[in-house]
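Raw record, unedited: Chaperone protein HtpG
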Amino acid sequence: MEAVQTEKGQISIHTENIFPIIKKFLYSDHEIFLRELVSNAVDATQKLKKLASFGEVNSEIGDDLKVTVTVDEEGKSITISDSGIGMTADEIKKYINQIAFSGASEFLEKYKDKVDDKGAIIGHFGLGFYSAFMVAEQVEIVTRSYKEGAEAARWVCDGSTEFEISAAERAERGTDVILHIALDSEEFLNKARIRSILEKYGRFLPVPIEFDGEIINDATPIWTKAPADLTDEDYKKFYRELYPMSEEPLFWIHLNVDYPFNLTGVLYFPKLKNDFHVKREKIQLYSRQVFITDEVKDIVPDFLMLLHGVIDSPDIPLNVSRSFLQADSNVKKINGYITRKVADKLTELFKADRKAFEEKFDDIGLFIKYGIISDEKFNDKAKEFALLKNTEGKFYTFDEYREHVQANQTDKNDAAIWLYSTDQKAQHGYIESATRRGYDVLVLDTVIDPHFINHLEYKLEKTSLKRVDADTLDKLIDKGLANQSVLSEADQTKLKELFETVLDNKSLNVSVEAMPADEMPVTITLPEFMRRMKDMSQLSGEQSFYGVMPITYNLVVNANHPLADRVLKQGDEAGQKQLVKQLYDLALLSQNMLTGADLTAFVKRTVETL
């Protein structure tokens, strides 16, 4: 080959201001330079391996192919070295000086019949090499091509459009990229800073990365392996590496698809309990094992953001300026595929071992309900495995539960009434009353349940959900059967007026009704509609119209309870008022609404009457 001739020239670009643009606008985060340059070095190494496999490399390539990053704090430089394919002087002119030309693209085009998707090249970060000028006042390349007889060449540029190519001393094949760090970027001469960047972006690069005498990456992470070759402990170990402070995952899904797009990865189901506001940036996006971002909201459906894990795809388009995802057809296909895989996994677990699935449901129920509400395709599949739990701890599918309560909880309009509790302890008395009637009560106490309840009513035919303490049971499940009152109409009117006068509270809607004698003497309820609006405004964290409007409670006096007759027959007016107040406070206490001075007064009155 010809000897390298010293040459100076102008870089072929369309504007003199390319470098300021690179520095200020092309990359918002300057640390990206290291990702780009290390990725290029990995790219060069993988190209060499491919060429060797095609029989196009005449010398031994060796087993110890790696990329080395070196920081010279005194000399104020960073060097990224590889022993990949290297470049000739002509290739430097072609690939480095002509910014718009992609070496990786040409390579893939040349070998497109021999390179499959699995072994594809990383190099689709476009102007990656020039990100070096974000942190360097001068950049050198010292390189030697793998081609037989090739001579080493040196390229140097100070960030202007001028460059120089000359002969260099390099005995071995490969490339050194040497960054002479600018004054305003000396933070990158800190070894701990460089290590953290390498661990962030290069933790799973497919070629060993050496820094400060150590290999800092796992070149064959579990998502690159076949599921058949992995044990449960392998998956758990990888999860601990990703999330060292987290509890053990419940289960996981290994993603692996070649068509119509390329996607691999592992998604884990964490223990969510009732924490809907859990940190969501837990899914990491990679492109051929290069970390891109943990902002995956465009590629992963919102409800799946609660999962943890890794997704790797070369088919996800990247905006080179900020590595943000763009919504194109591939992204939408990947989104749908992940949703389907998650639903299939849950169906499989449910059918394989229902008991084990039920034991996990308190941890995954929040996730499943969120998916049902927010994703129609997931909702269609979730009908098979979504469960409802009652106050006895028994689980039912939607169809099973309908059958379970149909006979006893159908109202006069032939609608099924599903009773529910949001707090078993606070609503214990109401649950007990319902149970005495043979009614079943569901537990819907997660933060997302107000929305889930609305969704169920929308999707299920002739079904209403009512909170067990939202009204008297005869009104909650109105079967059209009226209880007979032991009080005359005149006494009922007198009792109603007495409670209104003594309590003198405009936010109370007082009524007297014939109820079973074993029910509470006085019941205070907030209508179902108002309760839901209040719960939903609390979940959103914003005050809705219903969250700020005055609340009116229903106060129902049980005409058939012995204490109602006792109030009427109380001869002493002061004693009558005290009994009314005591019964009202009991109703408040049963709803956890008696607090402060009112609670203290109630306790004092109770002690005095004992």
